[in-house]
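>> received
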Amino acid sequence: MASKKSPSAPEWQAILERIESQNRMTIEAVEVNRVTMEERFRALESHLGGRVGNLETAMKTVIGQLGTMQVRMDGLDVRMDKLDGRMDKLDGRMDKLDGRMDKLEARLEAQETVLDRRLTLIEAALERIDRESRARDASLEVALRELRVQVQQIGAEVHELRTKVQENSADIRELSARMGALSRLEERVAALEKRTA
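>> returned
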């Protein structure tokens, strides 16, 4: 059996040089890839760093806005408490005004009844005096003038009472308009609360 012939030293050297050459090429390729990857990592880090900075700024802005919104909400709560207090006061004033109106209407009805009775009596007296005035002397004419003055005074009192009733009615309408304005304000506040929720 023939023994295998070992390669000569130059052949081993050539193989070794080829391996070293391939290793150098591989190392150079790896180094190029490494440099490229580092550049890409640096670019990515710079890009992400800017975006992270923008995100942090945006978060600070959002936190500040949330704080502002909280302050505004606290202000709205205070305003709502004040509005509640004003509404309670208005309710109390409306109750008092209703009581005053009831009393005033009762007084007006009583006075109108009395005045109607007095006017009926005066009219009857005037008619009687008118029938008898042709036969009466100057003193009866003076009495007739006095009665007419009383009628005018009573008419003025009736007119004054009606004017007071109209003024009170105007006050009630004004209060009703204010109540409506407050109701609309409450609706706007409720809408703001929903928007800020």
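>> Confidence is low (pLDDT under 50) at residues 1-5.
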